[in-house]
Amino acid sequence: MQIRPIFAALRKHRLATLLLALEIALACAVLCNACFLIVSRVQQTHVQSGVDERALAVLKITGYDAASATDLNARVVSGLSGIAGMQSVSVINSVPFGEDNGAAGISLDAGGKHSGGVVNFYVAGPGSFNALGLKLLAGREPQADDYQPVSSFVPADASAWVTRALADHLWPNTDPLGSQFWVEKFHFRVAGVVANMVRPSGGESGPGMIQWSVFVPGQPGAHLSGLYLLRASPSQLPRVLRDARDAMSKIAPDAVVDTKASQTMQVLRERYFQQNRIMAGILLGVICALLLVTALGIVGLASFWVQQRRRQIGVRRALGATRGDILSYFQTENFLIVSGGIVLGMVLAFAINLLLMQHYELPRLPLYYLPIGALSLYVIGQLAVLGPALRAAAVPPVEATRSV
Amino acid sequence: MFAYYMDLALRSLRRSPVLTALMVLAIAVGIGASMTTLTVMHLLSGDPLPGRSQHIFYPQVDPTSHLNPHSHPYDMMDYHSAVDLWSAQRADRQALVTVSALRLTAPTVNQPALMAQMLSTTTDFFPMFAVPFQYGNAWTAQDDARHARVAVISADLNNKLFQGADSVGRTLRLKDVDVRIIGVLAPWRPSPQFYDVVGGRFSDGDTASFYGRPQDVFMPFFSSLEVNDGGFNPFTCWSAPDPGVKLQNSTCVWVALWVQLNSTAKVGAYRDYLAAYAEQQKALGRFARANNTRMFDLMQWLDFNRVVPSDVRLQTWLAFAFLAICLFNTIGLLLAKFLRRAGEIGVRRALGASRTAVFAQCLVEAGMIGLLGGLGGLLLTMLGLWLIRRQPVEYADLIHLDPSMFGLTFALAIAASLLAGVLPALRASRVAPALQLKTL
């Protein structure tokens, strides 16, 4: 295949060639970045919560008098435990994918000089550690005397269970067991390490900090009340939650059930990532429309060129070129234009990525998106040009003798 | 001549229906996508108080008692600073604002208790923010001072409890306290809920919640503190609050102050007053820093909080990149179309048409494609907005196509297609007549 005549022909159509290459460049840049955005959004939705989501539900009540909270907790826990199929009921301050309720900055010294970052505190009553299904990697499970009274938002001096990710961040290369940390005057000593426990503000705090959580056992009371963790077998869970919500009017007539927050953990998770899924859907739609428009542009321009060159094609056929020669001429031409567009498009893709990084806390575009984007544009280009090229190949040699 | 060109353009478009359809479709899809996102942007980033927002200000002081490493004051104020500044009455209007949740029942209505969002504020709130009333009135400054047990409720709550009837004079039970309804708001849906916007820069762009509905119950600030005692939550605290200390005396920030200042001189004077107040509090030993005060106007405050969700901004950029691709596409197709008619243009030129005339003829054709694309784009915009209204986001019910956006759709479509037409039209007008006539 001779490339030089193709270049010679393209030089005659510099403007149209340039436009098509620019369109492909822009499409390539948007395609790479949109794919990258889709993948990062979808990845966020796959975050490991570290808890037994399928077997858990939460029940939230509000509107009761804080003075009666201790009595209320006892009534709710004992009342709900009686529901058929309920495996356990425990009090907790917040749950993964629920409302954010325990974020605090910690320090690694009593004076507050050495900051350890903002972490999430899960404060929860007896039974919750096992109900959550946390996977213990080191240390021991909470014992009865670990459950201290909660004076304001955490116990004054408590044992704490940290996640692997947080332990690696705070005490790299040392055994975290027995380490201490502080929130102002509140003091914590690490008694165990759990595999994962995602913070309620799951995907928002940046991928590195999603698992920065601390589990602190606490005694239910005025500062730990109103949110109840229910555990049942996955098949019975929806029915158990429904029964629990219905039972509240008898157990705690003075409280109001927050139906929006009282859901199974799976519903909460789904709701939490809804926006991510919508955005991924929109991006996918844009990519499809983009490729379609680009393909249509190629079809339109190639058809025009074929029509314009009918006579020349006829001459070439008359001089001995086969149909395959004509077909491959147009396909090579398209390949060259798309290649030019892609070279420019890769530079543009990185420029757009830099802009996005500034505004959306995205990481750098991984290099492997570029060949993927390039390949899909080559495929689209070849498919789009196939129709016009076949029409060109069908031009009979006799065309050369007409109206010359 | 214009009419003649229109006729020529129509003929030309009809001659190659597929190519025409491709171009119209490209423009329509590009316009549809960008107008949908632009409409959402326009509705979400608009001025919630057009004509008055430049007089509305958000004063801030730094009440921390130790040296604050943060360079900005907190987004809200502690109780004492806010009430001091409010009671000084140095502005044309001033209102304290804080939001809490509480249990609500209507004793005469047979409905279960519900948790309502309550806005605690002072009398100037209603005239300052031009809040519309359906029945009754707002409370007076005397009601604020007397800690009167009165409330204003939203149209939504009035519909829910009283089926939209005039409920002025009826009783609501908030927690354990009976309060008298003295006013019912007309449907009011500020976008965003500007008076309650705080902490936007900590939400990582996920700010859709700023576009929620206004609160259901409005109560005089000091009365509500008694009614919902213990029900208020701090925005943040500069040191861990001591158990047992009331929020009013705690080391927490949880009250916002809005002021209205009708002239630039008053704005300057208020800034000075704010600085003087901080200086005085530092002298009293309550503030650690005196020079950390700030006062944004309403729109600056919304910008500072980046109220427009980052996803919406991303979608807008995406749509415009898409429109650019559609434009490149159209330029290429128009070029092909015009140059295909080189022979025809050669004849026109030989018969005496000037380059300008050929250029104008081509542009009219491009404009025609733009008009058709605009029509398609409008339909697609309406489809796009309908899809957004069905999304589970707080601002879904705010989304509609307003007349200005309707006009802009066509302006943008025609401008885009004319822009796309310029280059091909220039090319077409430079066709050498002699060369074309020879090949005829």
Tell me what you see in this structure.
The complex is a heterodimer of chains A (about 400) and B (about 450). Chain A has helices at about 5-10, 15-45, 70-80, 130, 165-170, 235-250, 265-270, 275-310, 310-320, 325-360, 370-395; strands spanning about 55-60, 85-90, 105, 115-125, 135-140, 150, 155-165, 180-185, 185-195, 215-220, 225-230, 255. Chain A has about 400 residues and is α+β, with helices and mostly antiparallel strands. Chain A has 2 domains: about 5-45 and about 275-400, no CATH class; about 95-220, no CATH class. In chain A, strand 8 and strand 9 form a beta hairpin. The longest helix of chain A has about 40 residues, at about 325-360. The mean pLDDT of chain A is about 90. With about 450 residues, chain B is an alpha+beta fold. In chain B, about 50% of the residues lie in helices and about 15% in strands. In chain B, strands 2-3-8-5-7-6 form a 6-stranded mixed barrel. In chain B, strands 9-10 form a two-stranded antiparallel sheet. In chain B, helix 2 (about 15-45) runs antiparallel to helix 10, helix 2 (about 15-45) packs across helix 12 (about 355-390) and helix 12 packs antiparallel against helix 13 (about 405-430). The mean pLDDT of chain B is about 90. The interface between A and B is large, with 52 and 54 residues.
